[in-house]
Structures are given as C-alpha cells and as structure tokens.
Amino acid sequence: MLRTFSTLFxxxxxxxxxxxxxxxxxxxxxxxxxKDTQYANLKGKKAIAVIAFLLQIxxxxxxxxxxxxxxxxxxxxxxxxxxxxxxQLSLFxxxxxxxxxxxxxxxxITVLETKREKYIAVKLMRMKPxxxxxxxxGYRYFSYFIYYIPAMLLFASLLDVPFIQGIALAASVTLWRxxxxxxxxxxxxxxGNVLIKNTAVVWxxxxxxxxxxxxxxxxxxxxxxxxxxLLWPVTMVIAALGAIAAVRLARYADYRTxxxxxxxxxxxxxxxxxxxxxxNKMQVKSKDKDLDYxxxxxxxxxxxxxxxxxxxxxxxxxxxRSLLSRPLWNRMAIIGAIGLIGVALxxxxxxxxxxxxxxxxxxxxxxxxxxxxxxxxxxxxxxxFYNCDLSLMRYSFYRNDADRHFRQRLYRICGLNLTLAGGxxxxxxxxxxxxxxxxxxxxxxxxxxxxxxxVFFSIHHLFLYYxxxxxxxxLNVKNPFFFLVNIAVSMAFVLAxxxxxxxxxxxIAIVTITAVYFVTAIILVKRxxxxxxxxx
Length: 536
Fold this sequence. Notes:
The protein is mainly alpha-helical. It folds into 2 domains: 61-269, no CATH class; 311-532, no CATH class. Helices cover 79% and strands 0% of the residues. It has 22 helices and no strands. It is globular.
C-alpha cells in the first residue's frame, strides 16, 4: 500500500512540477531565471514537489472552509438574523445534508471517475488495479476527513454545536461518501452502468438538490430533517454503513473491470482528449448565420470608417455576436427572475422583505460574488482566443501590439458587463422600492459598486488572459499561476464578507481598487504583453 501510494504521489507531483516549471518560465521578470535545465534538476524538482504538496494541503483546508462558509453557513445565517440560533442550526444542517450527502453522493464519486492519472498508473505503468484503487480511495477519504475537521468545528461552534458532535459530523459525511462509493461500484457490477457519466441524472440531482437546499430560505420555512445528523443512533448507523463499505471496497475482487471502464475513456490519445477538446471548441465556435451577416450587402458599411484593430474587432464582435449575446441574455433572464422574485416577496411577505431591506448594507459584500458570477469576461476571452488569437498570436507584429488590442477589447467587454450591472441594479432597485426601508444613499452606493465591479471583472479576466494566457490549443486551462491568482482573488472576496464593511467603505474600496487595477493593467500589458501573449 505504501509503495503504491508513493508511486501515485510521484505521478501527481511530477506532473504538477513540470507544469509549474513550464508556466514559471513564461512569467514576466521571474521567468527569465527559470531555465530548461530545471527539468533535469532532481533536487530542485523535489523541493518544488514539497511546495506543491504543501499547497495542495492548504487548498484542502481552504476549500472545505469556503464550501461550508459560503454554501452552507452564510445562506443559513446571513439575512436570517431574526431567527433563533436553533432555527439557524436547522437551516445549516438541512443545507449540509442535501449538498454534502445527497447531491455529492450522486455527483462526486471517484471509484468510477474518468481520470488521466488512472490511465497512466494502470495502463502505462502496469500498476495493479486493486492496489491503485485502494491507495487512491484510502488517501482521498483520509485526507477528506482531516480537511473537514477544522471547517466543521469552526462553523458548528458558531451555532453552539458541541465539539464532539462537530467531529461526528465530519466523520459522518466522510463515511457516507465511502458508502456511496461502494453503492456506485455495486450498481456498475450489477448493471454495467456508470451513474456519474449519465449527465442527465447527475445534473438533475444537482438541480433538484440545490433547489431543495435553499428553498426554505425563500419560503420562510424551517426544516427539521437535518437535525437527524446530530442524533447518535443516526451517526452510528452511518458509521456502520461506512465501515462495512470500506471493508468491502478493500476486499473488492474485480477492480480491473471498473478501472478498464474508466481508463478507456481516460486515454489521452483516444476518446477523452478529443471529447474535451471538441466540447470546449463547440462552446466558442461561431455560428454560420453570424458569418453570413457580415457578408450581406451593406452590413459592413458602419465599420468602413474604422481602421486597424478597431476595424478588426468591429468585424469580430459582429461575426461572433451570438457567442456573447447568448450568455448576456441568459444572465439578463436570471437577473429578471431575481427581480420578479424580490418584488413578489415584497408583496406576499412584507415582513420578511422589510427584514431583508433593513440589512441592505450588510448584504452589499455579496455584490462581489454576484458580479463575478454574472461577468462574461472569461467567456469573451475564450471566444477571442479560439476564433481570433490562436492564429494571430503566431505573428510578432500582433504580439507587439498587445496593448492596443487589449484596450479595444476592454472597452467592448466593459460595455457588456455594464449592461449586466444595469440590469442587476434595476432588479435590486425594484425590490428596494417595493420593500421600503432602504436609504437612498445606500441604493446609490449599490449602483456605484455594481458599475465599478463590472469594470473590475472586465479588467481582471482580460488582464489574466494577456499576462498569463492560460489556454492551450484545446482550450484547456493548465496554467497553475492562473488558478493561484484566482484563488487569491476569491480569498479577498471572502475577506470582504468577513470584514462586514459598511456601504460607503465598500464602495470607496471597490472604486479605488478598480482604478488602480485599470492603470496597472494598461502599464503591464504594454510592457510584458508581447512576451506573455502567445500560443502555449
């Protein structure tokens, strides 16, 4: 077991280290110090491997804190201050039960997961399938339990759950997931069906599960089913099921069939790479009707007065308008639904609407997360890469003019995101006017935050695209620094929630950061863009 785990650790860390070296070479300034000889520097790679392993551990703890905090604790507590702590605990456990037990039990299973590591270990390195699966599952759920303990103890203590019950909750969710792994494996053994590859079933479970988890918040209903997790008989039953499943998984005799079912799909030279590549490209492929639009008589007349990159981008956004208009209108539909729900809540439950309006300033930090979700900057960058830059990046004149087309694109993407900000502002204003109790100054600051955030995320996505260029020719994102920067930004968003800044302080901070980011992006893209903006 230890030898198998050591091999798995070597596969994971060597892949991560090689990728880290490759992308470190392409960083501004620091990249010049990373030479190709680093690939053969065994001592240096071991040091980097240790750092990568430590970062993986840190991310394990942070991800569990983020999940429990953002997806479970905050929805149960923020906006529900009028509820007793017992009712808040009921909401917390209800959301936790549905997301971590039911939804994850269907959609987050590793025993039959398609994974490139599985192909490399079993097919290329001839590792025994049973040894691989036992080591992989053992490490996953041992670390899963360890990562869950601090997060669960923190949020459980905020709701006055005893220490021992917090540990029991972490153990219960871990052992339940082990039990679900065994159920999926038995289903495959009996029927040959891999449930997690049934996209319709998985997304139906996710949709229904999340809807049922958060529905009580909007229906002013306090479910009590989640409190079953605190009953010791229930904990003992889950522990027994998980222990039995762990023994059965350890003794399972036909892992080869299960691994073969996944490894055939995981072959990077056959189906999986092609499937992911085609799926990614279909998302950003232009429509024939869009191309025909600019070939029609008179359709390019408005662009004739433009020259250079202004003309190029006018044609590009006209020929690929559906790639951006479709996500724009989808998001506007979501915003409209949010506005209608808010107005309906004000009419049907004025008391609850007034309570939400009274906490308007406390809820403003959530605008950061909302605008991050709504922004279409990343979608636009993918479309630009696949339909324009993938070919033009190969020419030095185009890379040298990175700052010029950066500005052209920034204005375009800002216009799209400002449209979303206007729609969100209108929806929130409609709720505020019907609910009452929201000061005019706070409503104006909300609009300021929305506008500034739309500009911030426009700059952020485009800046990372030009400086880190995370996309490969298959549109996969493999740049580790891209993930690290986004993790750091996400942690800043969490910090904004924890600090609970007032409306004025939050607006000033967002406007200031956006202005600084804009100036910094213009300068850095002009200086380093020609070197970093290239095909990888």
